[in-house]
Write a structure and sequence with these properties.
This protein is an alpha/beta fold. It folds into two domains: 249 residues, Rossmann fold, CATH 3.40.50; 199 residues, no CATH class. Helices cover 34% and strands 16% of the residues. It has 16 helices and 14 strands. The strands form two sheets. An eight-stranded mixed sheet has the order 9-10-2-1-11-12-14-13. It has a six-stranded antiparallel sheet with strand order 5-4-3-8-6-7. The chain is globular. The chain starts with 23 loop residues before the first helix and ends in a 25-residue tail after the last strand. About 2% of the residues have low confidence. The protein binds S-adenosylmethionine (SAM). The site of S-adenosylmethionine (SAM) has 24 residues, from strand 2.
Length: 504
C-alpha cells in the first residue's frame, strides 16, 4: 500500500550536503549505487564519482561537456550540478528517456499521488487474476517447465505460506494463457545465442499471458497521466519492473546456505532475478505483476524524497536551440556521429564518454524489451557494437572503423586543448586497433595517458563470461592547441597512472 508518509532511504547521487570536490580516492573506491543511481539496471553503468572527477579536473563552470554514448544518463545530472552545459547522445531511445527523468524529476508528492490512484484503480483488478482458492492473493508461482509446482501467498509482513496448486490456480493461469498483447509493440530479435535471443522470440515466450495482460493494464492507466514528468517516471518504473514480471526469474535451489547441498523442499527455494539475456530457466518464478511494479515504485519514491529541493534542468532535443540560447542540456536520440557532425567546430571542452566496448554488451538487443514497453523504435543499423548475431554484420572490423570515425568527428568539435576522456577496456587486442591508429587517423589528437577505473561494489557485472574483464581504464586524449591550458602533470600522481597504452 502506498501511504503518504513513505520514508526516505539514503541515496548518494544527489546528496543534500554541499558537494565537495571529488578526490582521486572517490574514484578508486566509489560508493555502491543507491537512490536514483540504483533505480534502473542499465547495462554497463559506470560510477558517477569517476565522471565527476574527470569533469572537475578538466573543465570550468559554463564549459560544454559531452557524452555521446550516455547510457544510463547518470553523468548528465552530475555535469549540470557542477555548472557545466551538457550534450548527451545515445542511439538507444531508452537511454535518453532515462536521462530526461534524471534532469526533470517529478516531485515526490505528484509521483506518490499518481501511484495511489493507480493502486486504487488497478490493484484489485490485477490481484483478481492471482486469487487463490480462499480469496488470498498469490505473490509467487513456481513453475517447472510447463507445470505449476507451488503457489506462495503472503501471511502478513514478510512471512509466506507455500500452497500446493489447486484446480482453481490452474484455471486462473490457463484463463489468460492465450492473451495477445495489444499495446506493446512487436519485439525484434536477432539470432544471438549469447543472450538466448532469436527472431522467433515473442513477448508470449518471455511472459505468461497473465503477466502480459497485467502489464498492459498498467500501461493503459499510465497513458492517461497528464503530468509528463510523472508519466515518464511511471513508464520507466514499469520497464524497471518488467524483468521480475517475466518468466526469466530464476528459482535458486542450491544456495550454499545448505552447506552446498541442493534444497530438499520448495521451502528453501529462493527467488532469483532476471539476468543479462533472455534465458527462461526450466524452474522459474512468475511473480505477481502488481507487486513487482510496487517494489520498483517504492525505490523511486524513496529516492525522490531526498531530492525534493533539487532543480529541474531544462533540456532541448534541437542542436540549434542549444547553441542559440542558454538551455542547460541537449539530449538527442541518434547515432552520435550524425549529431556531432552538426555541432559547431571548436565548441566542446570535454568529451567524457564510455563507448560500447566491442563485444561486451549488445545494448540495443538487450534493451528491446524496455523499448517495446515504451513503444520506442530502435536504429539497430547504426549501433556501434560487436554482436554475435550474424544477420547484423557487426564484426570487430566494422567496430574499429566506426570508432575511428567517431574520433575524427569528435576532434573537429573539440576546442583547442579540449580533451577526450575515454572509459575503455576490451578483452582482445583487435578491439584496441582504432586507439592504436588514432595518432595517424586524426590530425591533432595526442594520447596523454591512462589510469584504471574501479567499479562500484554493486555495478552490474560487465562481462560474466570466462576471462571477462571487471575493470576499465580511463584514457586521455588532447586536441593540441597553440598553448596548453591544462597541465596533465597531476595525473602522474595517480596510482597506476601510465603514459603508455595498456598492453593488449
Ligand atoms: C558502455 S554504454 C554507456 C554506459 C554509460 N557510461 C553509463 O554509465 O550508463 C555504451 C552506450 O553506447 C550506445 N551506443 C552504441 N552505438 C551508438 C551510436 N552509434 N551512437 C550513440 N550511442 C551509441 C549504447 O546504446 C550504450 O548505451
Amino acid at each position: 500500500m502506498f501511504k503518504s508518509d513513505e520514508t526516505a532511504i539514503q541515496m548518494s547521487l544527489f546528496p543534500d550536503h554541499p558537494r565537495q570536490k571529488m578526490d582521486f580516492r572517490n574514484v578508486l573506491s566509489p560508493e555502491a549505487y543507491s537512490g536514483l543511481a540504483s533505480f534502473h539496471k542499465y547495462w554497463g553503468k559506470k560510477p558517477v564519482e569517476s565522471f565527476s572527477f574527470v569533469i572537475e579536473q578538466l573543465t570550468n563552470e559554463g564549459d560544454v561537456v559531452a557524452d555521446p554514448f550516455i547510457g544510463s544518463g547518470l553523468i548528465a545530472r552530475e555535469a549540470l550540478d557542477l555548472g557545466r552545459r551538457f550534450i548527451g547522445i545515445d542511439i538507444n531511445p531508452f537511454s535518453i528517456e532515462l536521462t530526461k527523468l534524471f534532469l526533470q524529476l517529478p516531485s515526490h508528492s505528484s509521483y506518490l499521488n499518481a501511484l495511489k490512484i493507480l493502486e486504487q484503480e488497478l490493484k484489485p483488478i490485477i490481484d483478481e487474476s492471482y486469487t487463490v482458492n480462499d480469496d488470498r492473493i498469490g505473490s509467487h508461482y513456481l513453475w517447472e517447465n510447463e507445470k505449476l509446482v507451488s503457489v506462495w501467498v503472503r501471511n502478513g509482513g514478510r512471512s509466506r505460506e507455500i500452497l500446493t496448486p489447486t484446480a482453481s490456480d490452474l484455471f486462473m493461469a490457463e484463463k489468460y494463457s492465450s492473451y495477445q498483447p495489444q499495446k506493446l509493440r512487436h519485439i525484434k530479435f536477432f539470432t544471438n545465442s549469447r543472450i538466448n535471443a532469436s527472431p522467433l522470440l515473442t513477448l508470449n515466450d518471455i511472459f505468461t499471458g497473465r503477466a502480459l495482460r497485467n502489464i498492459e493494464l498498467i500501461l493503459g492507466n499510465i497513458e492517461k497521466q497528464s503530468n509528463p514528468q510523472v508519466k515518464r517516471a511511471l513508464l520507466l518504473t514499469l520497464t524497471s519492473a518488467s524483468g521480475q514480471m517475466s518468466n526469466m526469474v530464476f528459482a535458486i535451489k542450491n544456495r550454499n546456505k545448505n552447506g552446498g547441498k541442493p534444497a530438499r523442499n520448495t521451502n528453501s527455494i529462493e527467488v532469483g532475478s532476471w539476468v543479462i539475456g533472455f534465458w527462461r530457466p526450466e524452474c522459474h518464478f512468475e511473480i505477481n505483476a502488481w507487486n513487482c511494479f510496487e517494489n520498483r515504485a517504492r525505490k523511486l519514491l524513496c529516492a525522490l524524497k531526498t531530492v525534493e529541493e533539487k532543480p529541474r534542468y531544462r533540456f532541448t532535443e534541437k542542436g540549434k536551440d542549444f547553441w542559440a540560447d542558454n538551455t542547460s542540456a541537449l539530449l538527442v536520440n541518434n547515432d552520435c556521429r550524425t549529431v556531432l557532425a552538426e555541432v559547431p567546430a571548436n565548441s566542446i571542452s570535454l568529451i567524457c564518454t564510455d563507448p560500447p566496448h566491442s563485444d561486451r554488451i549488445p545494448y540495443l538487443e538487450l534493451s528491446e524489451l524496455w523499448n517495446a514497453i515504451l513503444g520506442l523504435d530502435t536504429d539497430f543499423e547504426n549501433e556501434i557494437v560487436v554482436s554475435n548475431a550474424r544477420e547484423r554484420d557487426k564484426s570487430k572490423k566494422e567496430y574499429n572503423r566506426d570508432m575511428g570515425e567517431f574520433f575524427r568527428i569528435s576532434e573537429r568539435c573539440l576546442k583547442p586543448n579540449g580533451c577526450i576522456a575515454l572509459f575503455f577496456n576490451a578483452r582482445d587486442s583487435e578491439s584496441w586497433e582504432y586507439i592504436r591508429a588514432l595518432e595517424q587517423s586524426t590530425q591533432n589528437l595526442s594520447y596523454v595517458g591512462c589510469f584504471p577505473m574501479a567499479y562500484s561494489a554493486t555495478s552490474v557485472v560487465q562481462d560474466n563470461r570466462k576471462g571477462g574483464l571487471k575493470s576499465d581504464y580511463i584514457l586521455f586524449f588532447v586536441k593540441q592547441g597553440h598553448q596548453s591550458c591544462f597541465s596533465f602533470e597531476h595525473f602522474n600522481k595517480f596510482p597506476n597512472w601510465s603514459n603508455s597504452l595498456p598492453e593488449r
